[in-house]
């Protein structure tokens, strides 16, 4: 009569415990779903074997029913349709049995922004929907299974190589100037940082490519002219596509960027490079983050947890992988290639990303709640663009758990590779950037999330009474600007550290406050959730 029957499918002991404490009765999943739960239970058992002892005990205690009262009540409501459903995926729910007062934790067709492929396509349409440029918060992205997108990526790769050459020319000139101002060194080799321009791998004189700077300047000047006349469509034609030997140009670029060949630019060319890069920066929001090595990250369009992701620096390598010249099992045509954020903020020389939760409680009108607590995930090895192994570049917990911390890792990186946002704020304060979190990062993350949702709003299957908790992943650039990487439906609630154990429990508690308690009491506490948008 009070409509307090719930069903939980999947490893969510916190949800089950909190609902029981509210006086709700659990309806066990039907037999077909029990088989699925058995499979998920085996997976959960494997996860528990690697969890800290305290986490295991908490999850075991959540399912305790010493007097059998919960099992008895579940038996009595076994034929009733649950009023609240929390499940791993929407397909587990029979929508024909649901009324408007039934609450479900998923919407239909959210792949429009929760898959890499969907988010890439949706954000291409953002300028037609909002006065916002996706290039200001989402690294440019292409679907390699589509001929037009593949050609656009090839154009982008070539143009990025040309811009990189301008930067490399200025870096080389600066290094030469520094070298002339320093006293002669001892017989030790140069003490280069791991992200500096690489030294040649072979003995003998360094090959010179002064003509490349002239060519790169010509390409970038023509591209700048195109940018000055383009319309709202972000796709721009490649300048001089027919009059430049791009294969030779890229081979020479690789020699400079990756093999230590020198450009030897004159002072006049250096000044032209500086002036042109300054003008390009006014037109290209991603110029500062794209770096000099033209690194791209290749992702299966509909996978998660870092599966199948690789980094590449050569055009033929990316196209070969996309054509299936790899052992990875990915559906043909579903590869997404995205510009890697080369100029990123690191902590103790280590790459990290941010997992940021938010909840959508309505799509008509769009209503979005932002969680004020989040956490950072560290890689297990120091950051370097000259070594593209997954342990240095993919922050996913499911990837990093496969690697031990390397001996050259800074000991200040936490052993469990997790920080809370409060720890991050304290770190920023030590750097003298204490205001960056609240004044730059958080407002930009909120804006990126809202733009992603608006771009996909018309494609989502809307249903009153539903809600969904999402996890957005962000990188932070050297200028403290967040870059949205992806948005996950069903973000993991299995704790991998003391920080996530606390935060995952809190976000589940506050989600129930938001979608259940607030119905009866609109003024009740919503915990760390903040309403950031209501259409």
Describe it for me?
- By secondary structure, this protein is α+β, with helices and mostly antiparallel strands.
- The chain folds into three domains: 1-29 and 67-88, no CATH class; 112-138 and 344-534, D-amino Acid Aminotransferase, Chain A, domain 1; 140-178 and 207-340, no CATH class.
- The chain has 17 helices and 15 strands.
- It has helices spanning 13-21, 31-49, 53-62, 69-76, 111-114, 116-124, 126-129, 147-181, 210-227, 246-259, 267-283, 315-322, 390-393, 397-400, 421-430, 436-456, 498-520; strands at 5-8, 25-26, 84-86, 103-104, 141-143, 296-300, 310-312, 335-339, 352-363, 366-371, 375-378, 418-420, 468-476, 482-489, 529-534.
- The strands form three sheets. Strands 9, 10, 11, 12, 13, 14 and 15 form a seven-stranded antiparallel beta sheet that branches.
- A hairpin with a 2-residue loop joins strand 9 (352-363) and strand 10.
- The protein is elongated, with a radius of gyration of 26 Å.
- Mean pLDDT is 85; it is low at 32-37, 43-60, 188-197 and 325-332.
């Amino acid at each position: 009569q009070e409509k307090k029957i719930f069903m939980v499918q999947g490893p969510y002991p916190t949800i089950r415990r909190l609902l029981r404490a509210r006086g709700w009765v659990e309806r066990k999943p039907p037999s077909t779903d029990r088989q699925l739960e058995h499979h998920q239970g085996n997976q959960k058992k494997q996860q528990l074997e690697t969890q800290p002892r305290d986490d295991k005990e908490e999850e075991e205690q959540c399912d305790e029913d010493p007097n059998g009262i919960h099992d008895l009540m579940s038996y009595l409501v076994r034929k009733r349709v649950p009023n609240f459903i929390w499940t791993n995926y929407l397909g587990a729910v029979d929508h024909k049995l649901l009324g408007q007062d039934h609450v479900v934790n998923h919407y239909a067709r959210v792949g429009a922004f929760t898959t890499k492929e969907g988010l890439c396509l949706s954000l291409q349409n953002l300028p037609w929907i909002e006065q916002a440029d996706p290039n200001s918060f989402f690294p440019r992205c292409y679907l390699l299974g589509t001929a037009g997108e593949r050609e656009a990526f090839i154009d982008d790769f070539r143009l990025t190589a040309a811009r990189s050459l301008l930067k490399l020319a200025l870096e080389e000139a600066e290094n030469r100037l520094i070298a002339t101002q320093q006293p002669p060194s001892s017989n030790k080799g140069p003490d280069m940082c791991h992200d500096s321009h690489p030294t040649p791998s072979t003995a003998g004189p360094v090959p010179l490519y002064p003509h490349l700077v002239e060519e790169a300047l010509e390409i970038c000047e023509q591209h700048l002219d195109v940018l000055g006349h383009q319309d709202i469509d972000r796709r721009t034609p490649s300048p001089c596509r027919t009059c430049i030997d791009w294969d030779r140009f890229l081979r020479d670029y690789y020699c400079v960027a990756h093999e230590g060949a020198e450009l030897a630019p004159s002072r006049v060319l250096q000044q032209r490079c500086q002036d042109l890069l300054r003008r390009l920066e006014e037109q290209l929001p991603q110029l500062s983050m794209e770096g000099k090595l033209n690194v791209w990250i290749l992702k299966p369009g509909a996978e998660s947890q870092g599966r199948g992701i690789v980094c590449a620096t050569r055009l033929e390598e990316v196209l070969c992988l996309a054509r299936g010249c790899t052992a990875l099992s990915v559906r043909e045509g579903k590869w997404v290639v995205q510009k890697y954020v080369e100029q990123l903020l690191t902590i103790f020389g280590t790459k990290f990303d941010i997992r940021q939760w938010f909840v959508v409680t309505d799509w008509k009108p769009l209503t979005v709640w932002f969680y004020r607590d989040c956490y950072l995930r560290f890689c297990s090895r120091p950051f370097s663009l000259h070594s593209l192994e997954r342990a240095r570049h993919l922050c996913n917990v499911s990837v990093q758990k496969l690697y031990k911390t390397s001996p050259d890792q800074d000991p200040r990186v936490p052993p469990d590779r997790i920080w809370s946002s409060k720890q991050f704020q304290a770190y920023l304060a030590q750097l003298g950037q204490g205001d960056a979190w609240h004044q730059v990062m958080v407002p930009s993350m909120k804006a990126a999330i809202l733009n992603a949702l608006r771009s996909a709003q018309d494609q989502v299957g809307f249903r009153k009474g539903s809600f969904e908790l999402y996890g957005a992943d962000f990188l932070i650039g050297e200028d403290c600007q967040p870059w949205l990487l992806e948005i996950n439906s069903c973000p993991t609630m299995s704790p991998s550290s003391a920080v996530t154990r606390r935060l995952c429990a809190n976000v589940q508690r506050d989600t129930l406050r938001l979608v259940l308690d607030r119905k009866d009491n609109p003024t009740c506490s919503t915990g760390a959730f903040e309403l950031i948008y209501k259409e």
